[in-house]
Write a structure and sequence with these properties.
Elements lengths: L10 H10 L3 E5 L3 H10 L3 E4 L3 H4 L11 H12 L6 E5 L9 H13 L5 E3 L7 H9 L4 E6 L5 H4 L9 H17 L3 E5 L3 H10 L4 E4 L7 E4 L1 H4 L17 H17 L16 H4 L2
Parallel strand pairs: 1-2, 1-8, 2-3, 3-4, 4-5, 5-6, 6-7, 7-8
Helix pairs in contact: 4-5, 5-6, 8-9
């Protein structure tokens, strides 16, 4: 249910949810009007995801999304003054060169994009980056399991943590990220049994996407959630509406009305108070 008040969601508020057993809701957004709807509905966390590369740009993966893209869309989201916590997804290449480079780019997401935290993909290969960001007082959301920016290394968008070695690595990385100070961890496309163990052994929240029902929260891409697409969707996506169908039907009705001369009618037109012949001679 949506919250009963309009309290701004902050990192400490999300951290306090887990001991109470209160689930966290998260959705992606990339623009002002969508953010208004998401915030007013009561969603806790908005991720300005690099998924925009696939959802808005029509790419096959997220790798071509730039820092400028994320800053631009973060600003659109932040300008809606959402109740939700706004997290900017650090794009591929923005934190891979050095911790100093990562801090510089993350600061731009905060200062120019208006984000309140950033998300970083990866575990042990990103510990130094996470530490640098937190030292710069930038809240960090971790991301383990299927990390889309590693699509070429992983050989595609595949479920992770199915083998003992990889499952153990995910658990160890989650513990280390917690120890370093991330406020929550996204667990993507891992077996639900592993997600349950990770969730049980951490004191910070886990947010699942394709990780089963035992995480402390869930996140979905907005366009997938509301059915604003006709592309293939993973089995873990639940569509709560069919906006594609609704919009397609509305456009068809508009086309028919224009072609038949039914739109606009006189009620939908402006009228002079006087005689047109008195204005035009």
């Amino acid at each position: 249910m949506p919250p009963s008040d309009n309290q701004k969601i902050t990192v400490p508020i999300l951290l306090a949810r887990k001991p109470k057993g209160e689930r966290i809701t998260a959705v992606t957004s990339y623009d002002y009007p969508t953010t208004r709807i998401i915030s007013e509905a009561g969603v806790d966390l908005i991720l300005v995801g690099d998924s925009l590369g696939m959802v808005l740009h029509g790419r096959d993966n997220t790798l071509q999304v730039t820092l400028e893209d994320v800053i631009y869309h973060s600003r659109l989201v932040a300008d809606a003054a959402p109740r939700s916590l706004v997290v900017a997804d650090m794009p591929y290449g923005s934190y891979h060169v050095s911790p100093q480079d990562a801090v510089r780019n993350a600061l731009r997401c905060i200062k120019e994009g208006g984000a309140e935290a950033v998300k970083i993909e990866g575990g042990r290969n990103r510990f130094d980056v996470v530490e640098a960001l937190l030292k710069a007082e930038i809240p960090v959301l971790g991301h383990l399991g299927l990390t889309p920016q590693s699509v070429h290394t992983l050989g595609g968008f595949r479920v992770q943590g199915k083998l003992r070695e990889t499952a153990q690595e995910i658990l160890e990385d989650a513990r280390e990220l917690e120890a370093r100070g991330v406020f929550a961890i996204v667990l993507e496309s891992i077996p639900m049994e592993l997600a349950r163990v990770v969730t049980d052994r951490l004191s910070i929240p886990t947010i699942g996407i394709g990780a089963g029902p035992h995480c402390d929260g869930q996140i979905l891409v907005f366009h997938d959630l509301v059915g604003f697409t006709r592309v293939y969707l993973p089995k873990f996506v639940r569509q709560y509406a069919d906006l594609y169908g609704i919009i397609h039907t509305a456009l068809g009705a508009y086309i028919n009305d224009v072609q038949a001369g039914r739109f606009p009618d006189e009620r939908e037109s402006y009228h002079l108070k006087g005689d047109i012949n008195e204005l035009i001679k």
